[in-house]
């Protein structure tokens, strides 16, 4: 009986590998080159390590093996998953940005789901007590203000404190080609959307970022990590995500524009939240006399319940067909849009949204990681000179980053 069961599992494993290899070829977009294969898809490299252990899995809807949820796939292969930990947007990825997510039980499997975006951001000692090995498998998009890297740090910290090992199933960074923006160096600008001393886009995968957190002293005690690397990948490669990483990054265009457009969340400009085109359009009612393109943000449960300028017609830029290849070629965030819309906005004193009470820190500053860019835009500093001011910090960060890369740059 044991032999038959083992053969059955091996057959499943082989079928899953064929499926995900074929699928990876389609997302790599280069049939004449080896397909990109995520760490999760390389089950042969880690399945035996999971067998016989009680597993805690940090996952969401982007956690897949082939085309199937990692939870369902690993359970079918005989792996004992005792808990699933969900980040912002929840395990199923259907909670709005910033929404508090509660603990629950998975309706399909009955496995307890612990929210790391609710009562606690870091797994507790009690939550880890019955776990032998933690596994982290979440798709990131490479920005300081995308909170998956915050969750990674909290999970690593909890594992280190409780002597638990963390296995990371690495995935490509779709914005891994760009390391750009001012580097956050002042703790005054730390917030829920930025706790690391990196540029706005760090150009690392989750596995590389974990090595960076260990190596740069973010943790009081280093976390023991094992990384299943992505096969056939380098940072310059195009990678189309097979699953939306969050509700408002629902197209590849949005994923690619996100590093440039998320900064608008700290301004009077709506960045497409409240529509089914988030992070591909920009606008505000006050720009009616400046632009002809228009749209109306509304409340969309599970995406944006309270978007900026809800139920008001916004006018501005339609970037749904913007050639994102330009961003890849330049390896830069686009700064021209925020400069253009600031110049076009009639009430400049209201362009940048207020931030913390009794502090000269705007919501824009918290996303950028400094107040310098806001002050430069207000002062009319040219884009070239703004970028020049970033260079010392970027050079220093790139030298640090190079120590932790797992893939060619």
From TrEMBL:
Pfam families recorded: NamZ_C, NamZ_N
N-terminal signal peptide: 1-24
Domain Peptidoglycan beta-N-acetylmuramidase NamZ N-terminal, residue spans: 55-252
Gene3D superfamilies found in the cross-reference section: 3.90.1150.140, Uncharacterised protein PF07075, DUF1343
UniProt key word Signal: yes
This protein's UniProt keywords: Signal
Record-linked InterPro entries: NamZ, NamZ_C, NamZ_N
Domain Peptidoglycan beta-N-acetylmuramidase NamZ C-terminal: 256-407
Name of the molecule in the record: DUF1343 domain-containing protein
Organism: Niabella pedocola
């Amino acid at each position: 009986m044991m032999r038959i069961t083992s053969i059955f599992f091996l057959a499943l494993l082989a079928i899953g590998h064929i499926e995900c290899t074929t699928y990876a070829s389609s997302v790599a977009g280069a049939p004449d080159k080896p397909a990109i294969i995520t760490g999760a898809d390389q089950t042969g490299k880690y399945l035996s390590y999971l067998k016989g252990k009680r597993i805690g899995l940090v996952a969401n809807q982007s956690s897949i093996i082939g085309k199937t949820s990692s939870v369902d796939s690993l359970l079918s292969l005989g792996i004992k998953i005792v808990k699933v930990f969900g980040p912002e947007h929840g395990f199923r990825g259907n909670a709005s940005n910033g929404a508090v997510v509660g603990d629950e039980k998975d309706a399909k499997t009955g496995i307890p789901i612990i929210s790391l975006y609710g009562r606690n951001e870091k797994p507790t000692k009690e939550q880890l007590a019955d776990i032998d090995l933690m596994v982290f498998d979440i798709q990131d998009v490479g920005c300081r203000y995308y909170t998956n890297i915050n969750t990674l740090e909290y999970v690593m910290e909890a594992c280190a404190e409780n002597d638990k090992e963390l296995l990371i199933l690495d995935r490509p960074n779709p914005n891994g080609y760009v390391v750009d923006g001012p580097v956050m160096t002042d703790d005054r600008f730390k917030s829920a959307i930025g706790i690391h001393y990196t540029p706005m886009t760090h150009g690392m995968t989750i596995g590389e970022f974990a090595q960076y957190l260990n190596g740069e002293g973010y943790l009081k005690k280093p976390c023991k990590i094992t990384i299943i690397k992505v096969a056939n990948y380098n940072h310059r490669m195009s990678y189309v995500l097979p699953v939306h990483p969050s509700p408002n990054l629902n197209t590849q265009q949005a994923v690619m524009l996100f590093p440039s457009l998320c900064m608008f969340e700290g301004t009077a400009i709506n960045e497409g939240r409240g529509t089914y085109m988030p992070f591909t359009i920009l606008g505000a009612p006050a720009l009616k006399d400046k632009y002809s393109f228009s749209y109306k943000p509304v409340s969309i449960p599970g995406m944006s319940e309270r978007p900026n300028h809800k139920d008001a017609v916004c006018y501005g830029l339609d970037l749904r067909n913007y050639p994102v290849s330009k961003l890849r070629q330049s390896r830069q965030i686009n700064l021209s849009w925020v400069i253009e819309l600031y110049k076009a906005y009639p009430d400049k004193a209201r362009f940048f949204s207020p931030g913390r009470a009794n502090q000269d820190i705007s919501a824009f500053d918290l996303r950028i990681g400094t107040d310098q860019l806001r002050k430069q835009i207000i002062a009319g500093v040219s884009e070239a000179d703004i970028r020049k001011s970033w260079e010392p910090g970027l050079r220093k960060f790139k030298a640090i980053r190079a120590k932790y890369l797992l893939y060619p740059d």
